[in-house]
Amino acid sequence: MSTATSVPDSAAREDRSNIRGQMRGMRLALLTFALSLATFIEVLDSTVTNVAVPAISGSLGVSNSQGTWVISSYSVAAAIAVPLTGWLAQRFGETRLFLAAVILFTSTSLLCGMAANFHVLVVCRALQGLFSGPMVPLSQTILLRSFPPQRRVVALALWAMTVLLAPIFGPVVGGWIIDNFSWPWIFLINLPIGVFSFSVCTTLLRRDAHDSATEATGETGETAATRAATRVDLPGIALLVLGVGSLQVVLDLGHDRGWFDSPLILTLSIVAALSIVSLLIWEAGEAHPVIDLSLFRDRTFSFCVLIISLGMMSFSVVGVVFPLWLQAVMGYTAYHAGLATAPLGVLALVFSILVGIYAPRFDARVLATFGFLVFAAVLWWNAHFTLTMTFVQIITPGLIQGIGLPCFFIPLTAATLSRVPDHKLAAASSLSNFLRTLSAAFGTAMSVTLWDNRALFHYDVISQAVTKSSGNTQQFVQKLHGFGIDGAREVTTLHHVVQQQAYMMATGDMFYMASVTCLALAAMMWLTRPKRGSAMTLGH
User: Which long-range contacts (CB under 8 A, 24 or more apart) does 451-457 make?
Assistant: First the structure.
């Protein structure tokens, strides 16, 4: 067949497959809802256990430090599974892999809720994390394929709402369940949602023997079978598991173990560094790589992944320090600290819909820059918080911040995939989601260490000013004496006040750093070249 004939035939096959894969009306709405629910429970499960560690530890008779393995085992397994998604989707099909991940995730949620002892729970959580890996990137890919090109940003906006809101409401939901029920219910609530999502997606995504990736590229069954029989990149998989697994353990346990003062953390850091460098070298020359590094040849993809990774890292730092400040410094309970972060989701929900509808009229760089500038302004506002802030004063900036969250996340995600070929969407989505998640984990791990170090710095500075010859100190001590506080209690009170102020100043420092980072990211956004119209026609 001549080239002139084969190209139109290939395009025709792709058009037919796209039409066959796209739905309309209530079927499309129901599919979107089911995919979003699957994404929601996966992202929710990564945060809902954060407030449940004391309850789980007490119930199963382990220390709180051991109890954190309920979180670590999940995150380590998920971190390994996410970058494998693109490769697995090519071999087994996007739809099949997604449905298998949903039902296995739901099944392991049941096992977590039924765990009789701590060791069984940790193993079940690891399995749950392993099966959760493909759910987020594949839900995004399947949703994009189901919408016509001109409506794909609407799909992306609906998907983004679940990714953005689940971490916000996770601690609130977890705290409510722990206060009113028992810890197994934080896993058991996944069952009806998972079964519903699996049932709907199975019904609506019923396909023939060809996998979805094959349909999208117009390949024959013979070609797909030949590709599936290609050599498995075992060295790449081994290096990926070893490198990412070691790195995630370092990030999860580094703060508690004193970072590089711990032989375990030092050893794992070396293993992670050597494994990841070896992985990059190996994959660059591998004919069938488990991670497609060729995606980074595109300037827009590379810069967008870098920007969204740094953005989520800053968001994670603030997301960790803010509730810690509320609980450790302001005296809030875990539940009320969760409530203080929840207003962020109010306007984020509204603007996710608006961005999805009107974003095609704008350049992605304009919307993303606006989002980052909103973040920078709000974080600068937060940096001026004081110890006398009321609850309303604390939640007001977060409410406004919700405007910026979808304005940068949705256009930036769309721009990331704007120049990716349609048959590489799954690989690109899994790779970008992996780096975004890993950056968030890095920000989470480093945030507490940076916060503590800044607090120690400010404590030393303030302590030098607290002397007997200081007029302010004398006035404060006299007030303490007026309340009957003297002697050892006086010293303890002075220490507490200085420490409280030091952590307040450290919190301001963290907000300042995040604000400056957002300004830099707003400028970096203009180094990208997304497709005109905010990259709203994803894939090509």
Answer: 451/321, 451/324, 451/503, 451/506, 451/507, 451/510, 452/506, 454/505, 454/506, 454/509, 454/510, 455/499, 455/502, 455/503, 455/505, 455/506, 456/502, 457/506
Helix, strand, coil tally for the chain in percent (to 5): 80, 0, 20
Cα separation, 423 vs 446, in Å, equals: 36
Q: Is the dihedral of CA 294, 269, 254, 184 positive or negative?
A: positive
Phi, psi of 206 (to 5 degrees): -60, 125
CA distance 448 to 535: 37
Which value, in Å, is the radius of gyration of the alpha carbons in the chain?
25
Q: What is the CB neighbour count within 10 angstroms for residue 119?
A: 12
Is the Cβ–Cβ distance between 170 and 335 less than 8 Å? Answer: no
Q: Which residues of the chain have pLDDT under 50?
A: 1-21, 208-230, 533-540
If you search the block for the tokens 């399947």, which residue do you land on? 142
Q: What is the pLDDT of residue 116?
A: 86
For each of the domains in the chain, give its residue range(s) and CATH number, in order of start.
1-230 (1.20.1250.20), 233-287 (no CATH), 294-540 (1.20.1250.20)
Side-chain-side CA neighbours of 57 within 13 Å: the count stands at 15
- Farthest-apart Cα atoms in the chain, separation: 98
pLDDT digits over 98-131, tens only? Answer: 999 999 999 999 999 999 888 899 899 989 988 9
Residue 216 confidence (pLDDT): 43
- Two tokens, residue 176: 């409510």
Look at residue 348 and give its three-state secondary structure. Answer: helix
* Cα–Cα dist 196/410, whole Å: 26
Q: Are 85 and 136 in contact (CB under 8 A)?
A: no
Single out the residue of 172, 232, 181 nearest to residue 59, CA to CA.
Answer: 181
Task: Select from 502, 516, 179 the least CA-distant residue to 335.
Answer: 179
Quote the tokens at residue 20: 């066959």
DSSP helix/strand/coil, 46: coil
Spatial separation of the C-alpha atoms in residues 202 and 96, rounded to whole Å: 9
Its pTM stands at 0.73
Altogether, the residues listed in the chain come to a count of 540
Chain-centre distance for alpha carbon 2:
47
Q: Which amino acid, residue 418?
A: S
